[in-house]
Amino acid sequence: MTDHSVQTYYFEPNHGIPNHPTLPVLLYPQALQAQPADTESIFNQNHWLNSWTNGVFDYHHYHSNAHEVLGVISGHVTVQLGGEEGQSVTLYAGDVVVLPAGTGHKRISASSDFRMVGAYPDGMSYNTRTATETEKEHATALAEISHVPLPKMDPIYGPQGPLLQYWHSV
Question: Cupin type-2 domain spans which residues (predicted)?
Fold first, then answer.
């Protein structure tokens, strides 16, 4: 693991994607560059569980009931964060991004060898929502987002990681 450099991104609600009202997306560039194959075990050691290895959906979606960490283990991917008017970010093997509940994300393009690991604090179950269309659906999503607890551990650096500084100070 390298240094604790982190980039933050804040997103407003966007075309039915609520995004998180207070927590930023955290991007850890090249945090696991020396050991991308160990990404899942590092997440799991830090209590980010219920992990999977695959890719990212090619449509805007979000999880209203769980925060999510994504770590690229091979290749590269360009994702749109925050919904249709969000920001495109290209992630490479060793990059890690933490998405607070409600944050929209979508795969724009990926290399043929792209693979990613995802996980959730304390193994929380997660839903998959797309842009909400009714006021009731939107209100339900916002209520779910507001009840997602803050993680006790940074997915890479554990109890002393930058996630705790960025998210717990909000």
Answer: 60-111
